[in-house]
Every structure is written in structure tokens, then in C-alpha cells.
């Protein structure tokens, strides 16, 4: 499922970019918004939006697993 990226509530182009650079939901949460913005070459506030979306999916996944 493309490392959970498809589940993120962000623009499809951003999802494609995340997949292209090899990021997963887990790596986004672990590395943080600054690392995301650097990896994609985007503004820090967009990295924060992506990070927040990944945290949301991560939290939902952990609730389902328990």
C-alpha cells in the first residue's frame, strides 16, 4: 500500500513526492517535519502539514492494533 502514504489526507502530488523519495508514514513521524521539508525541498509549514497527517494515521493505526 505504498507504505501507508495513500492514507494521508494530503494532495496527491505530495503523496507521489513522498513515495519518490522513499518516505513512509513511520519515517515521517520519526524524522519530523523539518526532515520532510528538506527531503522534498518544500516550505517548512508544508512539512508540518504532512507530519501532522502522518501522526494522525499513525495514531489511528495504533488504536486499531490494540
In the predicted model, the low-confidence regions spanning at least 5 consecutive residues are none
Order of helices and strands: HHHH
E-strand count: 0
Helix share bin: over 70%
Q: How does the overall form come out from the CA principal axes?
A: globular
Total DSSP helices: 4
Major sheet summary line: none
Classify the secondary structure makeup into a structural class. mainly alpha
Q: Termini distance?
A: 21 Å
How much is the average pLDDT?
Answer: 91
Strand content: under 5%
Radius of gyration: 11 Å
Oligomeric category: single chain
Describe the structure.
The protein has 66 residues and is an all-alpha fold. Helices cover 71% and strands 0% of the residues. The protein has helices at residues 12-21, 25-31, 33-40, 44-65. The chain is globular, with a radius of gyration of 11 Å. It has 4 helices and no strands.
Quick structural summary:
The protein has 66 residues and is mostly helical.
Annotate the secondary structure layout.
Elements: H1 12-21, H2 25-31, H3 33-40, H4 44-65
Helix pairs in contact: 2-4, 3-4
Characteristic key phrases:
mainly alpha; globular; 66 residues
Amino acid at each position: 500500500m505504498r507504505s501507508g502514504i495513500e492514507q494521508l489526507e494530503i494532495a496527491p502530488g505530495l503523496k507521489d513526492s513522498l513515495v519518490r523519495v522513499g518516505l513512509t508514514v513511520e519515517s515521517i513521524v520519526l524524522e519530523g517535519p523539518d526532515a520532510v521539508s528538506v527531503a522534498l525541498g518544500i516550505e517548512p509549514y508544508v512539512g508540518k502539514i504532512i507530519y501532522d497527517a502522518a501522526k494522525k494515521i499513525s495514531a489511528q493505526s495504533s488504536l486499531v492494533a490494540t
